[in-house]
């Protein structure tokens, strides 16, 4: 008998109708620092034919958001269905090889959930959620170069979080160590020193401009292998691009009309194309759900001003960029392709958090979900079948500085006076309202602060935010505990719970 399906928001998912041999393969491709205007079907000046194909043959989410406007926390949200600010990471990202894994031992992830429900699982690419290295005697957390890592000993890697196979790197391409990891071991001893912005330990043969090529090759190999098995597979492919360093490989240099950033976008799209081609060659294209999204908006490292002058707006007309609480920081290009289920060329304006991926996979896999798991995730499976089904309660976003915003319907309340990130003003001048309220239907570029004119909306959203903190979840269900006290101060000194 099939398992009872338990929804994260009602603990009772409806029957999905998949037989054991009909469950789809699931692939999530996660680009790095890529905005809504970086794809050519949204006006981007660098051709992205594979992503355009996904939009033409699949579903485009026009109102999808990362849980944070920077990458470590947004990756946590995708994989766990839980907001990062419930953990010890309440601002910024991991920057040191000494940062311990953010996902706790035995914490449920999309990978562990699917593995328990009959899936093969793999992660190929950039992890950036902490690797549990073993260090040489006398090492210190102040050493951010990675030279104190004992690369001959096994580490705690994604294989501790439900992934049966891992090939990739610790973090971004400007963060050492610069060495590939396969499963629990570095593939080589990082005896050299190399530098891409930050200097650190490196495998002498490691070159940043080869990562996309290697990730594409490994992804295709995995598809070729697992397509021959009876079990479906889940593959998470977090790419290193177009995040800095902007290093397109030799074959892609000069391909775009807008410089190296455009070249890197095109190479990123090429990886997506390699995955789609492998699915077709193996005859599993029709029943594979391929999701594409990015971990936050475009970074200023791309030189947004120069690109805009060339007619390419990385974050579209949205206000802000990576790091910010404004839309340009966390509204991201998001696509779903599943020919067996999704009618091509569709769009949905469902307010979607990428944390919703967890509940969606649970529903597709007919998985039972514990009350403590995926507490901020609401399935969009019904939206994949019918894009007009847009029901979703409020979602929460977070900036690099740890500032919050909550979105419900057309209203977005930012619990800060400025960007909360790198865009000026980071904080509004004295005398301006302490918070910002925007009507995104009337003002999608967030120009008019309606905080003072709508106290009832402010109070409603503020109380909702407090409830999400106090209850340890934003979905209906048994109250849960946050990992640490949540740093949030509301009106009249109201604070979030300590647990």
TrEMBL record:
Domain of life: Bacteria
Keywords, sorted A to Z: Calcium, Hydrolase, Metal-binding, Signal
Ranges for domain Sulfatase N-terminal: 24-365
Signal peptide: 1-19
SUPFAM superfamilies: Alkaline phosphatase-like
Pfam family, one: Sulfatase
Similarity comment: Belongs to the sulfatase family.
Name this polypeptide is given: Arylsulfatase
Annotated organism of origin: Rubritalea spongiae
């Amino acid at each position: 008998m099939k398992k009872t399906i338990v929804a994260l928001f009602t603990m009772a998912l409806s029957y999905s109708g998949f037989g054991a041999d009909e469950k789809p393969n699931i692939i999530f491709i996660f680009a790095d620092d890529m905005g809504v205007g970086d794809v050519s079907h949204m006006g981007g000046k660098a051709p992205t034919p594979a992503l355009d194909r996904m939009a033409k043959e699949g579903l485009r989410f026009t109102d999808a958001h990362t849980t944070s406007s920077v990458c470590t926390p947004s990756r946590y949200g995708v994989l766990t269905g839980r907001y990062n600010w419930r953990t010890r990471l309440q601002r910024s990202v991991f920057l040191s090889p000494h940062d311990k894994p953010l996902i706790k031992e035995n914490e449920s992830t999309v990978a562990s959930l699917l593995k328990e429900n009959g899936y093969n699982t793999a992660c190929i690419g950039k992890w950036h959620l902490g690797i549990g290295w073993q260090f040489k005697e006398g090492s210190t957390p102040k050493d951010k170069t990675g030279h104190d890592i004992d690369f001959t000993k096994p580490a705690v890697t994604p294989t501790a979080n439900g992934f049966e196979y891992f090939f990739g790197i610790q973090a971004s391409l400007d963060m050492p160590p610069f060495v590939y990891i396969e499963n629990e071991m570095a593939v080589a001893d990082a005896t050299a020193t190399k530098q891409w912005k930050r200097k650190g330990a490196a495998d002498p043969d490691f070159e940043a401009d080869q990562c996309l090529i290697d990730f594409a090759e490994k992804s295709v190999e995995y598809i070729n292998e697992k397509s021959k098995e009876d079990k479906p597979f889940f593959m998470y492919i977090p790419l290193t691009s177009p995040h800095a360093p902007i290093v397109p490989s030799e074959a892609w240099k000069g391909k775009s009309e807008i410089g190296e950033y455009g070249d890197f976008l095109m190479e990123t799209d090429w990886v997506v194309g390699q995955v789609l081609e492998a699915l077709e060659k193996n005859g599993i294209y029709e029943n594979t759900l391929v999701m594409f999204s990015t971990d936050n908006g475009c970074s200023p490292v791309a030189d947004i001003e120069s690109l805009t002058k060339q007619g390419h707006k990385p974050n579209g007309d949205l206000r802000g960029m990576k790091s910010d609480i404004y839309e340009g920081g966390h509204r991201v290009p998001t696509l779903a392709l599943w020919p067996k289920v999704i009618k091509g060329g569709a769009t949905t304006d469902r307010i979607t958090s990428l944390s919703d991926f967890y509940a969606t996979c649970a529903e597709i896999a007919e998985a039972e979900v514990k009350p403590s798991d995926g507490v901020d995730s609401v399935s969009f499976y019904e939206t994949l079948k019918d894009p007009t089904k847009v029901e979703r309660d409020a979602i929460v976003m977070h900036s690099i500085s740890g500032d919050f915003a909550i979105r419900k319907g057309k209203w977005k309340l930012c619990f800060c006076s400025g960007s909360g990130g790198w865009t000026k003003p980071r904080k509004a001048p004295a005398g301006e309202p302490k918070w910002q309220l925007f009507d995104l239907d009337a003002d999608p570029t967030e120009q008019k602060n309606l905080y003072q004119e709508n106290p009832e909306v402010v109070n409603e959203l503020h109380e909702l935010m407090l409830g999400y903190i106090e209850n340890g979840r934003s979905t209906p269900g048994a109250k849960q505990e946050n990992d640490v006290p949540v740093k949030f101060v509301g009106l009249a000194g109201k604070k979030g719970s300590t647990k």
